[in-house]
Amino acid sequence: RAKDDPQDPVRFYEGRMDEASRARSALAMELRDALREDRFELHFQPQADLGSGGVTGFEALVRWRHPSRGLVAPDEFIPVAEATGLIRDLGAWVLQEACRIAAGWPENCRGGARGGYRVSVNVSPLQLAQPDYVETVQDALLASGLAPELLELEVTEASLVADHERLLEVMQGLKRLGVRVAMDDYGAGLASMHALRSFPFDRLKIDRAFVDGMLSDPQALAMVEATLLQARALGIPVLAEGVSEETHLAALRRFGCREAQGYLFGRPMQAAEAAKLITREEARLAAAAAAAGASR
Ligand code: C2E
Ligand code: MG
Ligand code: MG
Ligand code: MG
């Protein structure tokens, strides 16, 4: 019988499997070439302080500049990069590139009074599992000159389920460097308050699904409120992801949320746009300071 004969479930399944894994290894090869040919780029999405409304930093988000498909979103290639191990090399590139770009942001090279703009970088479980991961981070900081406290690494709960001891060790190594570690996509999986207590996270990012559903779904609203209460009890600052409407803001402020990221404040943008945004932000702050000085 033919491989794609639906009358023969096993052969049919095997045929489909082959097809899927063939497509996957073709994609993996393309990704490898893309990395060698420098076809990935980082976009930066602003993060805002809900008190002052000011920009505090940016999350670096990888995209693939494909010759015929245009800009490809990470959800379409990160899973394959993870499955094939390519995420190690891709992740190292992302880290170096994010540090290099962030080190060039205005306040960051002058060591400005407000302490500079942070850059957040997503880290995959395979990267954290590398024996020399902490050194990789240290190398990226040294090569770029970025101040360690301006780098934040975002880990997901997928990293928590592996080896607790090992993760704790890596996190402590990163802390010694002065780097911050955030828990990403909180609420989307099984990560619990226990995880927040067991690991020294500097920040918690509430998954955008909850923020998005907050106004229509009472359970999502309760989840956001409970997370903010828990985090406050543990002394961990919270950032809400996926804030796309003014109405989200009112509820988040009411629950004591201090920071947010989402289309309301800005979409992920090219590095040059992020630099322009910082320049505008600096001008705004300088004007506000001058006005405050004049009125004294
Ligand atoms: P994430 O780390 O949770 O990043 C936030 C995602 O939410 C981004 O999608 C961002 O564009 C999107 N987003 C932000 N604000 C809004 C909003 O208001 N509304 C909506 N609908 N979406 C919003 P993006 O860039 O497509 O990235 C998707 C995921 O891919 C990321 O989720 C992260 O898990 C992964 N990823 C991205 N870059 C990297 C990377 O360099 N390394 C690794 N390991 N994963 C990455
Ligand atoms: Mg993230
Ligand atoms: Mg997230
Ligand atoms: Mg995510």
From TrEMBL:
All residue ranges annotated as the EAL domain in the record: 24-282
Protein name per Swiss-Prot or TrEMBL: Diguanylate cyclase (GGDEF) domain-containing protein
Species, as recorded: Albimonas donghaensis
From-to range in the entire protein, with total length: 402 to 697 of 704
